[in-house]
């Protein structure tokens, strides 16, 4: 909790000690969260900050002075003067945690060798951390069904389940679809879909993230890799303008798993199935890796020499909604310095309908950074009065107008910046495609060799996919976040900013001298007054809300009202 | 015929007592009329003065519980009669429900008036099919006679009552699991606080009392709290229904005054231990209490304090007698089967511990005990007790611990005898695998 927020609302605070350290937190904070604030980690399975508290796993028990027995850290709120001892200082707590771990494992199949969760499993982690002793259990274990599909996305292993009910609570409380339940009593318990139902909702994959053990796995990604062979990257989903925080695992150039990251201000810890299972849909199978002119492969230099028509005539820059903020701002520089005055830059934006469950998380668009484009084009400072829906309407209007003008052939040149420069549904519009092919000069900075745009461009320059770039994204609610590169680079493709830079340089009007994405981000953060004082670290860790951000004045640091530290709560 | 004061069982042997006309002839619903003429707070005062304690097991003072109910919450107050009676060895509520349902209903109405509750429910265990039918019929009759409905006895006060049949789970006797079940969910105890008196049924103030507790209320209204408090002994006032079972010549349900000597109860009321056998031990309070050996029963009286001092508890007085022919290992195994079957499975220590302990007891009983088993059981009991959501975990371990402690000799013999004799059917490889 940052200072700025307590200034604005001033919730009553309570002060207590945890393991001898003084802690001050807002009233109502539970012991787990309070301890986190002084970097004491209390283990938990069933607790989740955005779900109800069932208190069933019992691993978070702590000693509270004066209480007749141990208290659970998830359900017990810190009160003034409370003296709390965790496993760091209490032997009783240590004993209890060790015993809870032993009990959780007696019926567990211990099939870590074939379990997808191995390596990122809380049973493994906590066992080593809090018990690490051989079991005293000599009896036969309970057997339960394994490999039970709950729906099209999720597979259950009944034996691995520890009955934390996180998955059940998610479907009951968040999606309110209630497809699954914990059946039976005692150690016969079993997660199961309810009669006549299947786990089918737009956020279904989230239950796998929430499952602290290997009981729930992704049907798409089962057995595809041991997690320690995959490279994890903290990034942001670019499916829509919600900008859900995700951890993306890559192996051999493939996305092998995507997990949500906790960010209370954005996606809590949820992801939609479309974003998760389709994370690699922006990485086309057939890549554009060489430049081409009228369908003939050429060298980079030859292709650059062919873009001179841009200097004259009226140009439309159709921008994909997944360029970075830095790129949008460079596009503006390019338009001003290298193009004719009547040229336009328009971001591809179309709204879409959402189902009830999608509305919980998903934004009504496929345009992850349309606000970033707005931010760069209008030199205003967003403020609290900015109306999100008005923005959306404006963008859509501008995009539709541009397409209409394209059809009327009022442009001499069109530049397609990115594969998503034209929305999918418009690519099916034959009238539009014909108008494009009639346009005297078209340039594509593209990635997908099978897309409709590729066929229709005079000159094509090979561009990188958003999965191969890093930079700033502004989500629909004006939170500045950081999209990080998640897959290795394809040889021969360049970032859009680099391509613009090269064209501008070939026109004798250089606009950028960065060598890497990071360089560019740093110079952008250093040069743009509206984001002055923001660091890459901040945008990576939860992001900055630009609606309330007060930019740094010379020599000071900026003030942000709610930096959320993103820490997984698996 | 008992020499004890009869408050609850007065009419249970009248074959037509369940029919409202006959019950009214014997005075039923008169106490309700009297209660309605009193200020509700006055009724609570009388119950407080009676020092009546809850008969469901925990022995919590009833008047005090009613006093916790906020009167100005703006929410309806609910009264729930806990007729889940699933504690092993307990069958006293059944007698009242079957034989004198109008006493139960009248008790609930008096309590509801005191609490100004307009809706009450009897939660009856699923297996009680006959009591269910009896009470259901009795409720209908009470509606017909105007004791229930929009204008109770013409007083202008409205009260409605339903009976709900559980689906057969011991845990649904735990008051918050009962509420979950009643609200249509899986019967699993809730985290406390909040307590039901403040936020119970659908988040509204709710009083949950046992059948026997509520059945005492009409007598208290009739005779006053003081008179009730004069019966029995200090801290344990009134009478208590005891469900006596096991190796007795005449088992059954008996109403005795609190403080009645335990051994005398066996001899006088229950006809003594069967076949003139010697007593091995007694579980006095329903299975979830410590077992008492025959020696420990000396001088003990049937009341809260005396049994507590003897190291056990009155509980709900499910009085189970074991004679010298009893195998304590089989006895506790049988209990552990019950608990592992009935643990709701919510919290780790109870869910896993209940089964583990059952399996160890079963192994010992089969003659496959290992040295260290008893210590392991005791250690597991320590890890369960005090670490669970509800009292199931806390009380399940009481018979385990006390059997293992008090009959340790028998346990030891069983374990070592087999080790020596080598008759074990255990495959040594199982043991090896289990170790890792
Ligand atoms: C596991 C468990 C089972 C219980 N079963 C019953 C029961 O069957 N009947 C009952 O009246 N109380 C039962 N109780 C006690 C209730 O939770 C509650 O304390 C009682 O109904 C309150 O009524 P009283 O104050 O009149 O005793 C049970 C408690 C636990 C922990
Ligand atoms: S399947 Fe996973 S999330 Fe669901 S209850 Fe079991 S352990 Fe918890
Ligand atoms: S102690 Fe046992 S019965 Fe009670 S909530 Fe926990 S698992 Fe359920």
Number of separate helices of chain B: 20
Strand order in space, largest sheet of chain B: 8-7-13-10-11
Structural class of chain A: alpha+beta
Radius of gyration of chain B: 23 Å
Give the strand content of chain A: 15-25%
Strand content of the residues of chain B, in percent?
Answer: 5-15%
- Alpha carbon gap, first and last residue of chain B: 62 Å
CATH superfamily of the largest domain in chain B: NADH-ubiquinone oxidoreductase 51kDa subunit
Q: Give the radius of gyration of chain A.
A: 27 Å
CATH level-1 class of the largest domain in chain B: Alpha Beta
Q: Estimate percent helicity of chain A.
A: 25-40%
The small-molecule ligands in this entry are: flavin mononucleotide, iron/sulfur cluster
Domain module tally of chain B: 3
Oligomeric status: heterodimer
- How are the strands ordered across the major sheet of chain A? 15-14-20-19-18-16-17
Largest sheet of chain B: 5 strands, mixed
The greatest interface here is:
A-B, 38 and 35 residues
Return residue spans of chain B where pLDDT drops below 50 for at least 5 consecutive residues.
426-436
What global shape of chain A is seen? elongated
The CATH topology of the largest domain in chain B corresponds to Rossmann fold
Structure write-up:
The complex is a heterodimer of chains A (570) and B (436). With 570 residues, chain A is an alpha+beta fold. Helices cover 27% and strands 17% of the residues of chain A. In chain A, strands 15-14-20-19-18-16-17 form a seven-stranded mixed β-sheet, with helices on both faces. In chain A, helix 15 (452-455) links the parallel strand 19 and strand 20. In chain A, helix 9 packs across helix 11 (370-377) and helix 12 crosses helix 14. In chain A, 50% of the residues are buried. Chain B folds into three domains: 20-229, NADH-ubiquinone oxidoreductase 51kDa subunit (Rossmann fold); 232-323, Ubiquitin-like (UB roll); 328-420, NADH-ubiquinone oxidoreductase 51kDa subunit, iron-sulphur binding domain (de novo design (two linked rop proteins), Up-down Bundle). Helix content of chain B is 45%, strand content 13%. In chain B, the strands form four sheets. In chain B, strands 8-7-13-10-11 form a five-stranded mixed β-sheet. In chain B, strands 3-2-1-4 form a four-stranded parallel β-sheet, with helices on both faces. In chain B, helix 7 (129-144) links the parallel strand 2 and strand 3 (160-165). Chain B is globular and about 80 Å long. Residues 426-436 of chain B have low confidence and may be disordered. The interface between A and B is large, with 38 and 35 residues. The complex binds flavin mononucleotide and iron/sulfur cluster (2 copies). One iron/sulfur cluster is lined by residues 171, 189, 343-347, 350-351, 388-390, 392-393 of chain B.
């Amino acid at each position: 909790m940052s200072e700025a927020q307590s200034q604005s609302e001033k919730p009553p605070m309570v002060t207590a000690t945890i393991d001898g350290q003084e802690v001050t937190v807002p009233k109502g904070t539970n012991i787990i969260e309070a301890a986190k604030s002084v970097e004491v980690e209390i283990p938990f399975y069933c607790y989740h900050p955005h779900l109800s508290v069932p208190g069933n796993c019992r691993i978070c028990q702590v000693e509270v002075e004066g209480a007749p027995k141990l208290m659970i850290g998830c359900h017990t709120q810190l009160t003034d003067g409370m003296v709390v001892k965790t496993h760091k200082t209490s032997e009783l707590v240590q004993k209890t945690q060790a015993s809870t771990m032993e009990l959780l494992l007696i019926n567990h199949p211990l099939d870590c060798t074939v379990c997808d969760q191995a390596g990122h499993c809380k049973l493994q982690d906590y066992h080593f951390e809090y018990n690490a002793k051989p079991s005293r259990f000599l009896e036969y274990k309970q057997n339960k069904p394994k490999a039970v599909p709950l729906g099209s996305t999720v597979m259950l292993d009944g034996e691995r389940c520890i009955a934390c009910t996180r998955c059940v609570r998610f479907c009951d409380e968040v999606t309110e679809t209630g497809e699954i339940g914990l059946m039976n009593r005692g150690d016969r318990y079993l997660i199961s879909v309810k009669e006549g139902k299947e786990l089918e909702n737009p956020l279904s994959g989230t239950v796998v993230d929430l499952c602290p053990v290997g009981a729930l796995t992704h049907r798409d990604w089962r057995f595809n890799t041991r997690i320690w062979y995959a490279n994890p990257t903290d990034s942001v989903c670019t499916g829509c303008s919600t900008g859900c925080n995700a951890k993306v695992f890559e192996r051999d150039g493939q996305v092998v798993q995507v997990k949500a990251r906790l960010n209370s201000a954005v996606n809590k810890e949820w992801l939609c199935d479309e974003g998760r299972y389709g994370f690699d849909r922006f990485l086309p199978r057939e890549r554009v890796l060489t430049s081409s002119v009228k369908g003939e492969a050429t060298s980079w230099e030859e292709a650059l020499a062919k873009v001179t028509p841009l200097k004259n005539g009226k140009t439309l820059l159709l921008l994909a909604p997944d360029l970075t903020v830095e790129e949008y701002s460079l596009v503006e520089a390019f338009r001003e310095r290298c193009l004719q005055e009547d040229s336009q830059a328009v971001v591809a934006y179309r709204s879409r309908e959402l189902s009830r469950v999608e509305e919980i998380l998903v934004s009504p668009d496929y345009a992850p950074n349309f606000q970033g484009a707005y931010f760069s084009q209008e030199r205003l400072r967003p403020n609290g009065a900015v109306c999100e829906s008005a923005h959306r309407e404006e963008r859509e209007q501008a995009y539709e107008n541009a397409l209409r003008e394209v059809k009327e052939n009022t442009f001499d040149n069109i530049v397609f910046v990115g594969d998503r420069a034209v929305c999918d549904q418009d690519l099916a519009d034959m009238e539009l495609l014909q108008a494009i092919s009639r346009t005297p000069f078209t340039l594509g900075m593209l990635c997908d060799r099978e897309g409709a745009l590729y066929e229709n461009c005079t000159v094509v320059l090979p561009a990188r996919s958003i999965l191969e770039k890093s930079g700033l994204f502004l989500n629909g609610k004006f939170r500045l976040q950081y999209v990080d590169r998640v897959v290795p680079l394809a040889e021969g493709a360049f970032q859009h900013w680099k391509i613009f830079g090269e064209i501008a340089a070939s026109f004798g009007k250089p606009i950028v001298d960065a060598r890497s994405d990071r360089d560019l981000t740093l110079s952008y953060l250093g040069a743009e007054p509206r984001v002055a004082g923001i660091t890459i670290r901040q945008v990576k860790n939860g992001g900055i809300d630009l609606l309330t951000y007060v930019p740094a004045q010379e020599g000071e640091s900026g003030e942000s009202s709610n930096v959320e530290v993103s820490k997984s709560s698996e | 015929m008992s020499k004890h004061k009869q408050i609850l069982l007065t009419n249970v042997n009248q074959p037509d007592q369940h029919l409202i006309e006959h019950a009214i002839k014997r005075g039923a619903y008169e106490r309700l009329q009297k209660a309605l003429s009193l200020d509700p707070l006055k009724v609570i005062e009388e119950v407080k003065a009676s020092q009546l304690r809850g008969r469901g097991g925990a022995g919590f003072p009833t008047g005090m519980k009613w006093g916790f109910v906020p009167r100005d919450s703006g929410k309806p107050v609910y009264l729930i009669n806990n007729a889940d009676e699933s504690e092993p060895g307990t069958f006293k509520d059944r007698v009242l429900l079957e034989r004198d349902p109008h006493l139960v209903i009248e008790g609930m109405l008096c309590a509801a008036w005191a609490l100004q509750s307009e809706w009450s429910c009897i939660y009856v265990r699923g297996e009680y099919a006959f009591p269910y039918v009896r009470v259901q019929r009795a409720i209908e009759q009470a509606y017909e006679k105007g004791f229930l409905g929009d204008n109770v006895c013409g007083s202008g006060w409205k009260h409605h009552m339903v009976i709900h049949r559980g689906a057969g789970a011991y845990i649904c006797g735990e008051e918050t699991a009962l509420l979950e079940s009643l609200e249509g969910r899986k019967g699993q105890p809730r985290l406390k606080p909040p307590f039901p008196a403040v936020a119970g049924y659908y988040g509204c103030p709710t009083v949950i009392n046992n059948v026997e507790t509520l059945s005492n209320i009409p007598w208290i209204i009739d005779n006053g709290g003081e008179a009730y408090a004069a019966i029995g002994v200090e801290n344990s006032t009134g009478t208590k229904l005891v469900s006596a079972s096991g190796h007795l010549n005449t088992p059954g349900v008996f109403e005795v005054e609190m403080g009645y000597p335990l051994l005398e109860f066996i001899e006088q009321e229950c006809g003594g231990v069967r076949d003139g056998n010697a007593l091995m031990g007694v579980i006095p309070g329903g299975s979830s209490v410590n077992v008492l050996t025959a020696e420990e029963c000396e001088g003990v009286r049937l009341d809260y304090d005396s049994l507590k001092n003897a190291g056990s508890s009155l509980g709900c007085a499910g009085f189970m007698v074991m004679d010298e022919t009893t195998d304590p290992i089989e006895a506790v195994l049988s209990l552990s089967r019950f608990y592992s079957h009935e643990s709701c499975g919510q919290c780790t220590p109870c869910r896993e511990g209940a089964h583990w302990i059952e399996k160890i007891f079963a192994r010992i009983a089969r003659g496959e005990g290992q040295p260290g088993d008893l210590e392991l059981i005791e250690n597991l009991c320590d890890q369960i007790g005090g670490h669970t959501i509800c009292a199931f975990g806390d009380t399940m371990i009481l018979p385990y611990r006390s059997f293992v402690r008090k009959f340790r000799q028998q346990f030891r013999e069983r374990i070592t005898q087999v080790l020596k004799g080598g008759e074990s059917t255990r495959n040594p490889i199982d043991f090896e695998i289990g170790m890792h």
